[in-house]
Amino acid sequence: MKLHRLLILLLFLLSLCWFCGCKNSSSPADSSGPTTKTQETSAGEQDSGAGEETAQKPQTYLGNDTLTFTYSEADYRALESEIDQWYRLFEAGNDPDGFLELYEQMEEGSFSKLDDQKTVAYILFSLDLQNESVKQQYLEMEKRATAASRRICALYDDINDSAYKDSFFAEWSDEDIRRALKSAKASTDEFEQLSNAYTELTVTYAALPDDANYLSASAQLYMQAISLNKQMAQLMGYDNYMDYAYDYVYHREYTPDDVNSILSLIQQTGFLDATTTGLFSALGNLQDGMSKEETENVLPYLMHPPVISEDFNGTAPSSEHITAYLQRVSPNFLSAYNQLFKDGNYALAFNDASREGAFTAYLSGAGHPVCYFGGSAYQSATTLLHEFGHYYAIDKMGSEQFSLDLSEVHSQGNEWLYAVYLGTETLTSRSAAYYFDYKLLMDITSFYLCLCINDFELYVYTHDNYTASDLDKIFLDICTSYGVSEFLLDMMGEGLISYWHRVTLENPGYYISYAMSLLPSIEIACIATENMDTAINAYLCLSDVSPDTDFTTALHTAGLHTPFDKEIYTRISGTIAKFRRLIR
């Protein structure tokens, strides 16, 4: 049974982009709809200049019919009718088997359809953020899902005090029951109104033009988001939103206070200096010593060119050594990749009105994940393999209801294995060292940045004495407190200030998962530089664990470490030092 987890989360877990960084154009939306792989449609006709009309290339692709929106008012009424019947069975109190059977029927049928179609509506909205019709369609599905899950969750408290308790909760863990009873407390009109208001706020934010007013406009929206989130956390019985997000929304086994110990570890182990000043200067020395041929050897992998293009024909992209790498990991790994595209479990966007980003979601009714790729910056080999890491793990585990920190190791670990594979199979030794250092520098930047984002969110959700105009300074002060403000400014320039604007509203409390997952992902790469087979086995082990396995246990089972373990900092620092020796 999985419906209890889905319902508990659905009230509160907003749509997440696995690879976030949404930035949208203000160009008007194209009038054409998405094009399916099996459907011959064009976005319009244009004059070729030679007296012939040629069809424009489609701007969006949907891989199969499971990504078609079909939900109707009749479908929703059918679900409501089942919930009504479920309530009547509870009030009668004499049919525990029928009560449980109807709950499971909703799990596999009407509620599963609602949840899948809500995901489809979100994908269609992402393909065309300026299309008012698909926006309203998505908002309506969010409201329906919130209302339906609220009605079901509201009964959990009463079930726990009834004769149905033992039979209904027989297969639930103590933790699931605890979370269910918390959700019952929040199943009120007030919480539903707050949740719907937050969804509408995220839609407004997603459509913000990236112009001179973006920073001020997003800051004002963020102040509204903070207020809504604080109110929802209070209704759930938490002191602040970050406690609520860590414990309830993301189900982490560590607290915001625990994260503070990471700062001590990076300072005590010398990791901070090794990965900022040391790594930055080493990369510069490497670059100065590279020949023209070595530079040309590595340059294509630094530019991240798209491997998915508007000429996409439905077959799995195989350029940049992708196929050979996947085969090296495992024949089953390559087979799953090919199956993703053969089955059409993807949505692609090539228009200015689409969401720039990539994410992977699970359609529980259809029984498979689906990947979204929007914008040329998110259609490179690295992003493709990032999302395939999510896809493979979700498909293999048959669920997306597992640790989100672990999920990010599935994706980023795949990126790093690919990086080491390129270095050993296609690059000269100095070019490989440069590529490794370059990617390491980029990801270490992300690691520190996400730690700062987490502290920034912790501040805004536990304080009240600030305005929208104070937020940039608060964020920079936190970067300074970590000792990384100069490093981040060197790496990002003006982009540092704008970063929190782009990630905190749609994904509150989430970005610490990127920091927590980056170090184990880099550790996989460190192992791969010594023994590729050992690294591959460790990586694949992370998809073999049960969905109930917590982040720490999953990593330790695979022979890896968490950011709370001193060993991970010494191993990464040691690999950096090894690369220094190799290229002297």
Structural overview:
- By secondary structure, the chain is mostly helical.
- The chain has 2 domains: 3-19 and 58-207; 257-344 and 380-582, Neurolysin, domain 3.
- Helix content is 63%, strand content 5%.
- The protein is built from 27 helices and 7 strands.
- It has helices spanning 3-10, 73-92, 96-108, 110-127, 132-153, 156-160, 165-168, 174-185, 189-206, 214-235, 241-249, 256-268, 271-275, 277-289, 292-303, 322-329, 331-342, 381-397, 404-425, 429-462, 471-481, 485-492, 495-503, 512-530, 532-541, 551-557, 566-582; strands at 35-36, 45-47, 53-55, 60-62, 346-349, 357-363, 368-374.
- The strands form 2 sheets. Strands 1-4-5-7-6 form a 5-stranded mixed β-sheet, with helices on both faces. The chain has a two-stranded antiparallel ribbon with strand order 2-3.
- A hairpin with a 5-residue loop joins strand 2 and strand 3 (53-55).
- The longest helix has 34 residues, at 429-462.
- It starts with a helix and ends with a helix.
Short summary of the structure?
The chain is mainly α and 584 residues long. 63% of the residues lie in helices and 5% in strands.
The mean pLDDT is 86
Q: From the helix content, strand content and strand pairing, which structural class follows?
A: mainly alpha
Helix proportion of residues, in percent?
A: 55-70%
Low-pLDDT sequence parts? 1-55
Strand content: under 5%
* Number of discrete domains: 2
Strand order of the largest sheet: 1-4-5-7-6
CATH class of the largest domain: Mainly Alpha
How many H/I helices? 27
CATH topology of the largest domain: Neurolysin, domain 3
Distance between the termini: 58 Å
Which of globular, elongated, flat, extended, rod-shaped describes the shape? Answer: globular
What is the alpha-carbon Rg in Å?
24 Å
